[in-house]
Description:
This protein is mainly alpha-helical and 411 residues long. The protein folds into two domains: 5-54, no CATH class; 160-409, no CATH class. 58% of the residues lie in helices and 1% in strands. It is built from 20 helices and two strands. A hairpin with a 5-residue loop joins strand 1 (146-148) and strand 2. The longest helix is centred in the N-terminal third of the chain and has 25 residues, at 35-59. The relative contact order is 0.08.
Amino acid sequence: MPPKKGKAAPKGKVLIHKEGKGGPKSNGHAEGGGEMARLAEEVFTADESKAEEPAVEEKKPEEPSTTEAATTTEEPKDEEPAADAPSETQPAVEAEPAAAPKDTKSKKRKGAAEASTEASANETKPEEKKAPKKRKVDVPPPREGERKSGRGAQKAAPTTEQLLNYLLSPASTELCRPDDESAQVESQGADYKTYSSSALTAFEELVCAVILSRPISHKLGLRSIRTILNAPYSFTTPSAITSAGKEKRYQALTDAKTQHKDKTAEQIGLVADVVAHKFAKNDTDTSLDKLREQASHGWDMERDLLQENIKGVGKTGLDIFFRRVQWLWPEAYPFVDEKSSRGIEKLGLPKHPDELAKVLDRYWAKLDTSNLEKGDKEQQKRRAFVIICERATSADLEGKSDAILEAAASS
Length: 411
C-alpha cells in the first residue's frame, strides 16, 4: 500500500535513528509527483516499514513505566519534555513538585551521578541516628557504693552492712509483702500469722510449701496461707487438718479466693495424714523430728523420704520447704534454691549459699539482731540467713528489688 502522507514526520525520526546501518539520510521523496518518484517511494517505504518495527519496540520504554526496561542507559533527558509540559498552563514552582515523584519513584530511573549522590546521602543517615547513642559512652561506669538506674543516672547503692541491716529490719517486711497482707496485719494485730513475718513450725512450713508449689501467684499463695493458719480454721497441726475434713479445707481455700481449691485441699489433707502416721511422735507434734531421725539427720535423705511418702511433693515444694526450715534443721544449712538466688543476685549479694553465709558471718557483729527469734548464736545466724533469702525472693516476686536498695541506702 502507498504510505499515508501524514506519516512523513515519524519516518524522518526513525531514519535518523538508523543512520549507522546505511539507511537513507533524507525522506524528501515523500512529497514527489513523478512516476519514478512514486515507485522509488514505494520501495523506500517498504524498506522503511521493516526498519520501523524494532524501532517502535525500543521506544516503548520512553513511556512512564516501572518495568525493567526503564533501567537502560538512557540519559534522564528523555523525561525533560514531560517536565516542561506543565509550564505552559501553570507556574514553574508548581511543576517542580510534580516532577519530583518521577525522579524519586525508583532508583533505577536515575542517572549514575544522582544514584551515587543519593547513596552517599543514605550512608550518612545511620550516622546521624547513631549520634545520640554516643552520649551513653560518656557516662562513667558505676563506682563502688553506687548503682545505675533504668534511665542511666547514678544512684547511691547501700553498703553491704546497710543492706543486711535493712533486710533484717521490720521496715523491709512491708516492701516484701503484698499490699493486702499489710492491711490485714494492721487490722488483725501482731499475733496474726503470716508467711512473710512469722516464725512457723516445721509442719506449718511443709503445708505452706505445698500451697506455694501450686501454679498460683505469690499474692494468692500468701493469702491462702494466712487463711488456713488463722482463725476460724487454724490448720496448724496434722490433727486439725485431718479432723476438719475435705469440705472444710475446701471452704477455707474458697474464703481465701484462691485457685485450684479442690486439688490443694486434697493435697494438704494428704500431707497431714502422712505426717501424723509416719513423721510425728504424737497428735500435737509439729517438729517432724521423727523424720529427721529416720534420715539420720541427713538432709538428702530427708528430702527423699518426704518425696517418697507424700504424693505430689516435688522439687519445687521441697526447695521451698528446706529454704525456710534450715534455721530449725542445721543439717540443711546453708541452702539457697534457684528462685532465691535470682532475688539475692538482684540485691548485689552473693547467690552461692556458702559465700552468702560467709558475708553474714563477716558482718554479724555490726548487725541489729534484736528482731530475731531468741536462741543461741548459731541458730540466730541461720534465722537471719532465712530472712535474707525470703526478703530477696519476695522483693523479686513483688517487683520491689530496686525499692529495697533505695530504702537500704537511705537507712
